[in-house]
Design brief:
This protein has 322 residues and is an alpha/beta fold. It is built from 9 helices and 15 strands.
Length: 322
């Protein structure tokens, strides 16, 4: 099968489409013939040598996919050969085939085509697990979403809006801010021109902040929180080390949580996937929440897809089609 690997860390030209053996399903696994995968920021970090896959996982890039079940391992009763599915992966999605624990496999939501379904697993799992399962966003509360026009941002805006929250979002251009507004953002901030802390303070503060920047935004995020607010850090695009004024946390009785999804045990990922099917897939099926796709790129042109991600020229998800 074709699969994308990185023999030596580097830029987009470091990506190599190689010929690797087809996977076989172990106990509790299925093999999916991949229709499409999607590019995530974590993939570009792995390409640069900063974010290796978890121990025991494939070196092939790709943390989500959609496709058709082609083989089923021992002990799998929920899936059959021929089922159209999407899946949350530790790695391996940039390939013609991938083996995945059966609990991390989900049906394609009604009304979504098979290729587009690859845009859903990683962003939906990240948003649902962090914003709702961990931070406990409630109807009537305010959430601030950084990077609102990206894959995670577009999903966070839609889900928070659909479930009754007030949504604030940051982005770096008027075009991207308009996308955020079209998806349900009530407050938008151009981070290149305006101070999101001042804007959020004027709006009464944020109950929840979903942050992909890390160190560079840490204290500003805490300043933008309401009393008993929850800051969830899911990325380090702005660095990994920063000083923190604990008195702000104490005074606001605030919570600071940092999480990753990729390295969680399969049992935890399976529970998140089950929650998506129960809570998020119905919203997708009725059209309240929609996957936002910037472009479909053939797997052979994976370097071009990564360049677009590096340039931040995209809105929503970049898909890789097999």
């Amino acid at each position: 099968m074709r699969a994308v690997i990185v023999p030596e860390p580097g830029g987009p030209d470091a990506l190599v489409v190689a010929d690797l053996p087809d996977p076989t399903p172990g106990p509790g696994e299925v093999v999916i013939d991949v229709a499409a995968s999607a590019v995530n920021k974590a993939d570009t970090l792995q390409r640069q040598g900063f974010y290796p896959p978890p121990p025991g996982a494939s070196d092939v890039l790709g943390m989500e996919c959609s496709g058709t079940v082609s083989a089923v391992g021992d002990g799998v009763g929920a899936w059959s050969v021929g089922d159209e599915v999407c899946a949350l992966l530790a790695s391996g999605g940039y390939a013609d085939k991938v083996a995945v624990p059966a609990g991390q496999v989900m049906p394609v939501p009604a009304g979504v085509d098979l290729v587009t379904a690859s845009a859903l697993p990683e962003v939906a799992a990240t948003v649902w697990s962090n914003v709702f399962m961990i931070a406990g966003l409630q109807p009537g509360e305010t959430i601030l979403v950084h990077g609102g026009a990206g894959g995670i941002g577009t999903m966070a805006i839609q889900l928070a809006h659909a479930l009754g929250a007030t949504v604030a979002a940051t982005a770096g251009s008027e075009e991207k801010l308009e996308t955020c507004r079209s998806l349900g953002a009530d407050i938008t901030v151009n981070y290149r021109e305006d101070d999101f802390v001042a804007v959020l303070r004027d709006a009464g503060g944020a109950d929840v902040i979903l942050d992909n920047m890390g160190a560079s935004y840490l204290m500003r995020n805490l300043d933008a929180l309401k009393t008993e607010g929850r800051l969830v850090v899911i990325g380090m695009q702005g660095g990994s080390k920063a000083e923190i004024d604990l008195s702000v946390l104490l005074r606001k009785r605030a919570a600071l949580v940092a999480t990753t999804l990729r390295a969680r045990p399969s049992e935890e990922k399976s529970a998140i996937c089950a929650a998506l099917v129960e809570h998020v897939w119905p919203l997708v099926a009725e059209g309240t929440v929609k996957p936002v796709v910037h472009e479909r790129v053939p797997l052979a042109d994976v370097a071009r897809a990564h360049q677009a991600m590096d340039d931040s020229s995209h809105v929503g998800k970049i898909l890789l089609t097999t």
